[in-house]
Amino acid sequence: ISQELYRNDLFISVLWNPASDKTEQLSSFFQRLTKAKKTQSEPDAEAIRKIEELSQDLIQGLESYEARLLSIYEHDGVLFSEQSEFLHQLVGGRRERIPLTFGTIASTIYSDRVIF
């Protein structure tokens, strides 16, 4: 082939918020955050179950496009995060392997100094 080939990757983010009132949302968020910090646990098991269910429904609906969830993968003995790679591509403008870290995701995805 004499020319470069390009591909289009489409990413869909699923956001779910069970609360409809803005003050209820804010209050609920801080309650879950405080509880999670105190117990070192997941903020809300029911919410996690619901978002997983919604994600599976979406993937099944997009079956003909071979949709899948971003995940963690291994390359040369190192674990990498597709979620971090996606966010890095949004921030940095280019695709790059991002290793899985145990710290905050912000420090791993920001590798270039972007000035607007």
From TrEMBL:
This is VirB4. It comes from Bartonella naantaliensis.
